[in-house]
What we know:
Blueprint: E1 5-9, H1 13-25, E2 33-38, E3 42-43, H2 49-54, H3 59-62, E4 64-65, H4 66-73, E5 76-79, E6 81-86, E7 91-95, E8 97-98, E9 104-106, E10 109-112, E11 115-118, E12 123-124, H5 132-135, E13 137-138, H6 142-160, E14 169-174, H7 178-194, E15 207-212, H8 224-237, E16 240-242, E17 249-251, E18 254-257, E19 260-263, E20 266-269, E21 273-274, E22 293-294, E23 300-301, E24 304-309, E25 314-315, H9 328-346, E26 360-364, E27 370-374, H10 376-379, E28 384-386, H11 387-406, H12 408-424
Parallel strand pairs: 1-2, 1-11, 2-5, 11-24, 13-20, 14-15, 14-20, 15-16, 22-25
Antiparallel strand pairs: 3-4, 6-7, 7-10, 8-9, 12-21, 17-18, 18-19, 23-24, 26-27, 27-28
Amino acid sequence: MTRPRILIVGGGAGGLELATRLGNKLGRHTKAHITLVDRNHTHIWKPLLHEVATGTLDIEIDQLSYRAHAAAHGFDFQLGRFDGLNRQQQKVILAPVFADDGEEVLAARELDYDYLVLAIGSVSNHFNTPGVAEHCIFLDSPAQAQRFHRHLLDAYLKLNSPRHPKETLNIAIVGAGATGVELAAELYHAAAELNLYGFADLRKARLNISVIEAGPRILPALPERIAIAAQKELEKLGVKVRTNTKVTAANSTGLQLGSEQLDAELMVWAAGIKAPDFLHHLDGLENNRINQLLVNSKLQTTQDSRIYAIGDCAGCPLSDNKWVPPRAQSAHQMASSVADNILAELNGKSLREFTYKDHGSLISLSRFGTVGSLMGNLVGGAMMIEGRIARLAYISLYRMHQVALHGWLKMLVISLVARINRIVRPRLKLH
């Protein structure tokens, strides 16, 4: 009997957790052939990218090798970039892979599937604002976060030089959602740590960080009182928060805010997300206005029950005319639901409907504080927490992702190693 082929495209939080669970349940026991596809060799939890960008997290230590993880959990890994879909023949096309010097390492390939799960994630949405694509950095991938880190280290070196003509380092962050707010706080933390490593002239006062938000307040997806608390903490650090301010263009020297020019050496665009453009009308699949694949209550795409979509690339409607939010907790819940449904289908059982449970939202302001709400479904987001309890809750989100990938015992070992590294390794990635 031919084993069913389950193909998962995208190794983010949802895709990797799904591949791990199905690999453990089916792949290890040769009940199905599980394949995970990703364009990168390694995985890093996306909510940590702002720490990668500032250097407070060393991606070389914290990243996970897809190939090694696949070998340990009963699934296969294929390196490649999604390049097309043939629903009639049930094939996914992968683009060729090239080395840095342009040599073709892997030819274009076709992968067959019986069940396909698209977990491709999201990219930044710059709304076709002139100059943004050319002059701003988007923190939607490890490569972009590392690019920002390189530029940041160069800017720190210039600022620490007595011949540098500018007194301040000007950084503009467009978008006051979770990414923009957390990045602003983390930048101050990184600057404070750099004083330990020879950057004596890099004082807090020499950082000029502006957060620009087109809406009336920061953190628009969260309750207003959480946003107010977070803004107070940012302003204590020295962040200039500008709401009701629209970026009309970007250039090599800064941002255009209507008739005003805001000078900046580093510009980050974190003002919204969309699913990748190649998902738009992908072989007849339906989309919403930000390219997300429309799914039914079981997370199957509306036009093809053999294809599931999870995470940021899935347009899953809620009963109140809203969408399941693009958060790590959403991807985690969707991965669990799809795993259960694929297992049920293989065993001839009925599929269950997906129910999104809002467990609340937490915003980390680095070592300066954490604010948020817990158990959103139970208390309507009214249970606000902050301080040490909120920080522990924030860290636990990452630990639960590690539990889903490694189990409790290995997660505890990884946590212990991380604490040891904080003692024996530099506090900041300096290269």
